[in-house]
Fold Acyl-CoA-binding protein.
Amino acid sequence: MNDEELHIRFLKAFDAANAMENIEIPIDLRLQFYAYYKQATISSSNFYNPNDPVDIRNAFKMNAILQVKDLTPNEAKLAYIKLVNQTLIKYKINHIKPI
């Protein structure tokens, strides 16, 4: 799959993830979505500032981002797509088709 095809699949996965907004999904799974999305779109190297004061919610977000910081944007896109598909299956979300 080329970069353009991957990006199109990633955007479809993002739409699918947004459609899961009202479904009860554990916060740790939501943090994984967040981290992969950020790494795929802005890369943690442009996001992380160890001198910023953070509250607890931002600390959890930062931890999630640090866990994926070594992924390339394309690797993060693939991981995001895979996570969306796994979530759709695990939580039996039938009104959204896997990507």
Summary: Helices lie at 3-19, 27-41, 56-67, 73-90. The domain at 3-90 is CATH 1.20.80.10 (Acyl-CoA Binding Protein).
